[in-house]
Amino acid sequence: MSELPSDLARVVLSAETIHARVCEIADQLSKDYADKDGLYIIGILKGAFIFLADLTRQLTLPHVVDFMAVSSYGKTDTFSGAVRIIMDLREPIEGRHVLIVEDIVDTGHTLSYLYRTLKGRKPASLNACVLVQKERDSLEVPIHYLGFKIPDVWVVGYGLDFADAYRTLPYIAELKREEG
Ligand code: PRP
């Protein structure tokens, strides 16, 4: 692998490790939903776009891809959990088998909000597929398909950003933080 950018401390998940796990999850999804009449996949922008693209191209069952963009009001320890929709789905999801695809669960507020909001639209089923979850205190939110648990550090790459930088790195790396 070429040298890490100087702002990054270490690789947390290599491209190869991610690819192998994405294929495993896609296999599992293809089995679990095989008897359903298609899957309605919702990628949560911006962070999920790379995971979603790799995951869906490995699926062997009929599926539709749609997107939502949500935004939270800051990410501090006193974060209120308020989330709002910036861009909504194109279609109603009533009666459909829905899978939320997220890059990361940190506090859990975003996924919790998505469950509350989307359940109200009466899907036939509603599950979540998340690439990484931080090992930290967070809201209890069900994650039906999880790629990896990772330490509670700031990570970038494979969709994850720092001020919109680093999203398209092929691996996930820990960002160096300024001391003090
Ligand atoms: C990230 C990520 C999740 C959310 C998870 O999005 O994509 O949606 O944070 O955090 P939580 O569990 O603490 O709610 P972010 O708000 O950084 O936006 P982005 O995806 O556009 O980068």
Q: Uncertain spans, ≥5 residues at pLDDT below 50? A: none
Strand content: 25-35%
Say what the CATH topology is: Rossmann fold
Binned, the helix content reads 10-25%
The tally of beta strands, per DSSP, is 9
Summed up, the helix count is 3
Write down the oligomeric state.
single chain
- Structural class comes to alpha/beta
Molecular shape? globular
Radius of gyration: 16 Å
Mean pLDDT: 94
Largest sheet: 6 strands, mixed
Output the helix-strand order. EHEHEEEHEEEE
- In the residues, how many domains can be counted? 1
Distance between the termini: 31 Å
Lateral strand order in the biggest sheet: 4-3-2-5-6-7
Enumerate the distinct ligands: 1-O-pyrophosphono-5-O-phosphono-alpha-D-ribofuranose
CATH class call? Alpha Beta
CATH architecture: 3-Layer(aba) Sandwich
